[in-house]
Protein 1
Amino acid sequence: MSEKIKVTVWNEGRHEKSNKAAQEMYPNGIHGTVKAFLEKNPDLEVRAVTLDDPDQGLPDSLLYDTDVLMWWGHMAHHEVNDALVEKIKNRVYNEGMGFIGMHSAHMSKPFRAIVGTSGQLSWGDDQQEIVWNLLPQHPIAAGIPEYFELEVEEMYGEPFRIPQPDELIFTSWYKGGNIFRSGLTYYRGIGKVFYFQPGHETCGSFHNPYVQRILTNAVYWAKPNDFVINRPTDCPHRKNPVVELEEAKKANA
Ligand code: ZN
């Protein structure tokens, strides 16, 4: 593995072009904001791209040089090329690339392809949200208190049509009475997946220090480890492992 963790922040980037409130909340785009807080960590090499960039922001040269892919999409999910989605899924399942879905990425083609269900949910008006930390011993929850408040966030409610998560780290309560599994993980193939709900385009969650800490923690958690990086991507015919170990001992003798 290269010494730096290579993170690519993919943002649809359309709300920031057409919605004044989104422009004012994120003048550098959601991708620029996420890139800026991640870059405070010198061991992360962060690239930020959008749907309207060449090759929809993810030419092979970038996708195959990405350890962790972060995804924010909403109004243009349908425009993302199916061939690109297949490549992303394959990178996660067979090559161990981490995938982090942010906010409305719950309905994105890559998230749905990777987890295997529709990702549909109930939603409602912006309101107070309290994020509860259910798994404080998890690396993604490091530095996060028992709960924290987001003054205003878009309501995402249960039932959330996802497979049972492998780990449920955060659950949110909304002032209107709804609840939502807002931070959860999946292990898919040899890759790791984290979904996190806060991050509506006109709410300030990406400026919140706890949200930033959670997403930063998630990058370190989701990166492939050395074993995964060096693993053959096909299905090799294995030698007898006992013979292989004996040969290695003789070679080292
Ligand atoms: Zn939203």
Protein 2
Amino acid sequence: MNHPQPPAPGPSNDLLTIALLSIDSPFFYRAGELTCEDVPLAIIAAAVDTPVYVYSRADLLRRARAFLETAGAATGPGRALVCYAVKANGNPAILRLLGEVGLGADVTSGGELFLARHAGIEPGRIIFSGVGKRAEEIAEALTVGIRALHVESEMELAAVAAVAERLGRVAPVGVRVNPNISATTHPYISTGLHGHKFGVPRERAIAILRAAAAHPWLRPVGLAAHIGSQITDLDPFVQAVRFLVELAGEMGREGIPLAYIDAGGGLGIDYQGAAPGAADWVRAVGALVGAAGYELIIEPGRSIVGRAGALLTRVVYTKEQGQKRFVIADAGMTDLIRPTLYQAYHPILPVVEPPKAAGDDELVDIVGPICETSDFLARDRALPSIAPGELLAVLHAGAYGYAMSSNYNGHLRPAEVLVEGDTFRVIRRRQTYDALLWGTE
Ligand code: LLP
């Protein structure tokens, strides 16, 4: 919903936004300075330099617990598994924190399986989704004994069967169904229509489940759907889950009982417009699944980590050109590609609180140092006048921020910091130039 909308320019746009959101955000102004929990962001920038991702431990925990509690309440104790989508943010310290409060993991590669295991997440709480699992990755998953692999094609089912037989381990398989449900979001992150590469349509899901049930090395265990990401309307989720529950019922009557329904991830957050809360989403999908007697799996990513993180960047220069005013920051599309890739809107705040009603807001493009015209963090954004050396915080950047960063243009990946109360620690050091040589001869 939020992605395609152009930012509505207006005076102190983001200051107003944050005033509304701050009740629900770990980033807020205190004594004129933007802080994360009890740490002024300027202190982090001075200690660690910029660009740096800053995350609030309390916010991560609060959201993780909210998912666990509401999922448990919707289905009954022990009947719900919240598998955090590692792709949103795979920082090991964050994974460990989320794993310790009781989240499982939704992984999409051998690399993410490695990260989830490294963080101590039990295999029984890990599921493996994705259209292109290689035989080695399937073998890794079966060897550690994860809860299920979600297959997305007949060929993949055959590959899983072959690996399972070779290893002598029965593979628990779920089928990712493509329910052909349209969800309003950016087209690049909509996944639930037949024209998308994800999942299989109903009839083929049935055929795959029958084949799995008949195979000595396969065990059908569940059904999954993930219709897209940053969805702010609950209706398509409910439709998808109804579809899965109905299909699972049909399979059960046929003698192929399934244990769980996986409603996927995809709940949007309030980058700009409103978004439903975790509890509303979990109740809506969980009630249907619980009432039908299945276990519930959900795979939230963004809605757990998105608001917990901000990208802190320093303004290097300002310049005027044509009709434009540019604020050139030391972070760009290599640190946070979402504005470039999806025209995504992230609120951006000066770290030093501007005087209220200063009236000197100007429309600026906040751009990075990368040699691409598409390298921007915001376009036509109303900001109080900004001078070189000032710090800006790009909010709601905890999900798909660092995770999608790159070394393009020889730009080093930023540091990551975790704030806890009035203390903070570096949970990933900034890369150094040797990262640019890693693995080369
Ligand atoms: N489960 C599966 C199978 C997924 O593919 C995804 C996300 C999730 C769960 C988690 O979805 P979430 O709750 O985070 O919406 N890079 C894009 C988002 C891509 C999402 C890909 N799949 C962005 O920055 O908006």
